[in-house]
Specification:
Elements: H1 10-22, H2 27-34, H3 42-54, E1 58-63, E2 66-71, H4 75-91, H5 95-105, H6 110-126
């Protein structure tokens, strides 16, 4: 079963980032990290983890009477699916429109522009 990645909420994405970074974590570990920035109820985190597991995004194993959660969905797949959903939904599939929008509406440093030019040049070589 392929998880419905484009329906991630912000909190789910934060949880996935924690799991990708740590590879495995308990509810308590995740709760502590999340609460560094915003206060969340422990039960909210536990409920979300259960739902995410039901949707095939994560799995758990039992160790010393604690659930250790790990990601099943790969970061690359989630990133691709979320960005594809964004490009299709907001920019009618046009990558150029999305990049143009971002360049017009965000502050962009010289370093970021250099990096974008390098990425474009690399893509051109592949064509």
């Amino acid at each position: 079963m392929k998880p419905s990645i484009h329906r991630f909420g912000d909190l789910q994405l934060k949880i996935m980032k924690i799991l990708w970074e740590r590879r495995e974590a308990t509810v308590s570990d995740i709760h502590k990290i999340l609460c560094k920035h915003t206060e969340f109820a422990y039960t909210t985190v536990a409920t979300l983890l259960k739902r995410m597991e039901e949707h095939g995004l994560i799995k758990h194993r039992l160790e010393d009477r604690r659930f250790l959660y790990r990601p099943v969905a790969r970061e690359e797949d989630v990133t691709r699916d979320l960005s594809d959903h964004l490009v299709k939904g907001l920019f009618e599939g046009s990558l150029a429109d999305m990049v143009g929008h971002l360049l017009k509406t965000r502050e962009v440093s010289r370093e970021e522009l250099d990096q974008l030019e390098k990425l474009i040049a690399e893509q051109r070589e592949k064509l």
